[in-house]
Structure formats: structure tokens, C-alpha cells
Amino acid sequence: MSTRTTGSTTNSTDSTRRFARVEQTVPIRVRVIDEREAEQLVEQFRSESTYVETVAPETLPSTGTDVPWDRAALSSILSRIAQVERTLARIAEALNVDLSEGMFWLEGETSSLSGSGVGIVIPQRLDPETLLELELTLLGDPRATLRCLARVVSVVHPDGESLPVGRYHLGVAFEGMHEEDREALVRYTFRLQRAQLRERSSSIDED
Q1: What is the DSSP string of 23-34?
Q2: How many folded domains does the chain comprise?
């Protein structure tokens, strides 16, 4: 599957649009998928936004809260699901079960973010052209998650120095993302850029 054969949520102007890229580490999860599931996800991501703001259960006040009950409940459910998936991943690792079949999520982190793709670091090598369902967690207040269809475009092998053995740096391009999700990610990268520029400017002034 590719945008050439199935289309994506990307509109015609995105092929020439330039997105700012910012170096930033945020949590990410990836799931290997096949062509058939990729087709389904393209339609899903075209029809509705996946962007969800969440509140960590441990930060929710017990009384007098202004947090809507549905938002708090969703956050609690998502947290519990993530906990169960982490437990399954540890069990699979202990049993030496191959997670490459796409049934499980691999957890990692980003090295860079942009509106067209991300750099990610995960504990498993994935070949170029591998199709992925990807879930990004945008840290901040509020914290938010979004999902999209993506494709691996490059792989950097671990070298024991800049990248520890057992960790792989992948370049990933978005192939199916709702425009509202993309715009939310672009706004997030702009906020990060401004914060980093302010920090650098402050550091220069102090010197």
C-alpha cells in the first residue's frame, strides 16, 4: 500500500508543503500492519480525527474537579490499556516471542517531529517500506495522543555509541493522517521551536 495506490488523508498541496522539523523526544508506539489493514486505516483516518487530550489518572483531583467525567474516564481507560499492553510485551520478550507480526505495539520514543514524518528509536529493526500504525503522545498541558498510518523510509543500525546496541533509529513518513491531527502536530512543533529558541536566547544572554 502506498499513497500512490490507495490515497491518503494528505491533500494535493501537502506534496509541496514544507513542514518544520524539531528535535524532540516524546513517547511513541508502532504496530506493524499489512497492506489490507493499511487500506482500512486510510479510510478510518480520512473520516475522523484521532486526536485525544488526556489527563493522567494520578493528576486528577478526587473532589471538586473541573475535568469532564468523560475525559477523565477515557484517560483512565487508556492508561489501563497501555499498562496491559506493556505487561504483554514483557511476557512476550521473556518467552522470546516475535512481535513483528503486527499483533503487538512496540514502544519507543521520537528523535524528531514534523508534519510529514518523525524520527523514532525502537528496540526492533524494521525494514524500509514496512507499513506501520503509529501512535504519538504529545507531552504538555494537556497531554494528547494521535494516530496515523506511516511507512519506514530509512533505518540506522545501532553502533554502540551514538545509538546503543538493541535500539534502532528509523525515519518514518506519514502516509495517512487526518488533517486536523496533522495541524495539531504542526502547532505542537511550532510551540516546541519557540520554546527552544527562547531557551537558546536566554542562554546566550547569560553568557
Answers
A1: E---EEEEEE--
A2: 1
